[in-house]
Amino acid sequence: MNDLHARWSHRWLSPKAEARKSAIHGTGVFAVESIKQGETVGVLGGVVVPVSDIREYWKIMGHVGIQIDDGFFIVPTTRDELESKGVFNHSCDPNIGYSNSITFVAMRDIGAGEELVFDYAFNETYHNPMECHCGTAHCRKMFTGNDWKLKELQDRYGAYFSPYLRSKIGKA
Ligand SMILES: [Zn+2]
Q: How many domains does the chain have?
């Protein structure tokens, strides 16, 4: 940690949200006051990791970071940041989605106390199948790196996919 890290981190988070222990996984991010549909809730940054190295990175840091293109991820580099700031967890019934490759907006009005969650299908194509326990009516139970190809998800959430996937599914 240096002086710059004390003020800015890999990610900007809306002052209307904060890190809290999540029932989904680890430390999540929760609304502390109501957030309107379309409001920016987070902007993610970090360092760039090519997909050829991403599994090695995940072994060290766990499954964090965001895929921004077919070939690259942007990821945080310190555990302190992950633990103090939390990560946006996956849900099969998301309330935040992408407005550009690194920015999340509210997909609907979000109430104080709700966890901010996105669907990994919005941007990730590389992870192994993972079990989901989100418990929502839309829960897919298992989700994979190919879920962005599901017509049902494209129809429901097309505008909120990461731009590089939006262009592949004709929602650019
Ligand atoms: Zn689920």
A: 1
